[in-house]
Specification:
The protein is about 40% helix and about 20% strand. By secondary structure, it is of the alpha+beta class. β6 and β7 form a beta hairpin. The N and C termini lie far apart (about 90 Å). The structure holds 3,4-dihydroxyphenylalanine. 3,4-dihydroxyphenylalanine (DAH) binds next to β8 and β9.
């Protein structure tokens, strides 16, 4: 009997020593110390012992029980300490690791230049209005004195959604929208920036999506001199006193007379280079006196009122502003480029 008790103690102690998890430990505890465990089973056989041996054997079994319960407790404590240590090791934070730096954004160069232009025209009493990029044929062409089958439509081929709905090719659409809304509120003095679209090839100075800034003034007694003065003030305020504009006669169906306006090349200063294609000048806008037909289409009496209008290519102004020699950079979203502004 004593040998049996000793052998249970020994094998239990060994088993506990090699336990790997708390589940295993619990299984061992049940196996040796539980109600159907081997120690309890031994106690049940004590009836077969001599009366004087029973208390001795009972005390031995009890000692072994206490010993093993102790061992189980020690093992449990060790297992949970190890688990805690493992968890701490997994969740360790190395405060010396480099952090994640949030990227600071900035305004796109086009937006920066646009904001500056809005400031300049606001100073001259213009307000800003916007128009839709998806337009009807009427606002994009017909109301601007470009009837169906007029060759001017060919130079501004667009992306058509239906036969009469298209992506606008020019911000001049907003002239019509503004005049038709403002018949009671003359004079008009507005600028309208926004995206325009043309079915165009991409090169250093052309893109199928670009930005224009339209200007429109309608009042009594407005002349070409007002147009020249306004654009000259704009160019000199933006670029400095030595910015030179050149007005060339041109044709636009919605203005009469019309002009194309060039600025001295910002790369070569007028000598001729690849950016200005050897000419020394870069075309930056179209302008003219609002055609009487356009005024009348908008319900404005052209014998009383006159007006001037212009449409600036914002990309070219921005390129001139920062000395950028390729328009594609403005839409490619290359961080190395954008971070410089
Ligand atoms: N809409 C013309 C274009 O995209 C530019 C333009 C020319 C606008 C003359 C005007 C203007 O307002 O009067 O080519």
């Amino acid at each position: 009997m004593k040998d049996q008790i000793e052998s249970i103690r020994k094998s239990a102690q060994e088993a506990i020593a090699s336990v790997k998890s708390s589940e295993e430990l619990e299984a061992l505890r049940v196996k040796f110390l539980g109600k159907k465990g081997s120690l309890t089973a031994l106690l049940r056989t004590m009836g077969s012992l001599a009366a004087e041996e029973r208390p001795i054997v009972g005390a031995m079994v009890n000692d072994v029980r206490i010993f093993l319960e102790n061992e189980v407790e020690k093992c449990r404590a060790a297992l949970s300490a190890a688990a805690m240590e493992q968890q701490l090791a997994n969740e360790v934070i190395d405060v010396t690791m480099p952090g994640k730096k949030p990227n600071l954004g900035s305004l796109h160069p086009l937006t920066q230049v646009l904001n500056r232009i809005i400031e300049i025209f606001s100073g001259m009493g213009f307000s800003v209005v916007e128009g839709p990029e998806i337009e009807t044929d009427y606002y994009n062409f017909t109301a601007l004195n470009i009837p169906e089958d007029h060759p001017a439509r060919d130079t501004q081929d667009s992306f058509y959604i239906t036969d009469s709905i298209l992506l606008r090719t020019q911000t001049s659409t907003v002239q019509i929208r503004t005049m038709q809304n403002h018949t009671q509120k003359l004079p008009i003095r507005i600028i309208s920036p926004g995206r325009v679209y043309r079915s165009d090839n991409v090169d250093a100075t052309h893109s199928p999506v670009f930005t224009q800034l339209e200007g429109l003034v309608v009042d009594k007694g407005v002349t070409m001199a007002d147009l020249k003065g306004t654009l000259d003030t704009f160019a000199k305020t933006l670029y400095g006193e030595d910015a030179v504009l050149r007005f060339r006669p041109h044709h636009f169906p919605f203005t009469e007379p019309s002009a194309e306006v060039d600025m001295s090349c910002f790369v070569c200063g007028g000598k001729g280079c690849s950016v200005c294609k050897g000419e020394g000048w870069i075309e930056i806008l179209g302008a003219g006196m609002v055609h009487p037909k356009v005024l009348e289409e908008c319900g404005i009496d052209s014998s009383v009122y006159s007006g001037f209008a212009f449409g600036v290519g914002l990309e070219r102004i921005t390129m001139r502003h920062y000395g950028i020699d390729d328009m594609r950079l403005l839409s490619e979203n290359d961080m190395r480029f954008l971070e410089q502004f």
